[in-house]
Amino acid sequence: MYEVTLLNLISRARAAASWYERFEIGLAYLAGFIILVMAITTFYEVMARYVFDAPTPWSFELNMNLLLYFAFLGGAYTLVIGGYVRVDVLYARFSPRRKAAMDMFTFLFALLFLVVLVWSGIDKCAYVLEVGQRSQQALRWPLFPRLVMIPIGGVLVGLQVIIHIIRSAHFVFSTSSRSGES
Predict the structure, then answer these.
(1) What are the boundaries of each domain within the chain?
(2) How many CA atoms does the CB half-sphere of 99 hold within 13 Å?
(3) Are the CB atoms for 40 and 120 separated by under 8 Å?
(4) Model pLDDT, residue 5
(5) Sign of torsion, CA 121 122 128 129?
(6) What are the pLDDT digits (tens) for 7-22?
(7) What is the pTM of this model?
């Protein structure tokens, strides 16, 4: 009979995490494309404004929307590659197992923040959608497509945070990681 243990569940979750991280890499390429579009539209705006004295009413607002998409699409990828900020004053002195325990603890707080972010984002999106709120810029684009990226991005980053928690837990609770530490 197959026995279900915490380590078996963590191992299965780690396999699913591998698929999700490949998905995040794809989203990182999309975020890179968004930056390319932003660069092109910014270049166009500068040329139109300063060379032809004909500024565009849409460039600033488009780039403002795209920047939000870029930030939230790239956030989870930043966690995939370990690009987040970490205070190394004490962390560098810890053993690998204690580092993993500290990561697990830290990512649990990050997850709490992301739950609040997603909840608040959903609430704001529902309100904006209900009242049909639009931007105050020249084109008066609907705010919903911009704001919906906040809860979506929060979920994407939250899934990656859960993956980090699972990996840290696997390292902390696995018997092989205890062998070298007293």
Answers:
(1) 6-178
(2) 12
(3) no
(4) 74
(5) positive
(6) 677 677 767 888 888 8
(7) 0.80
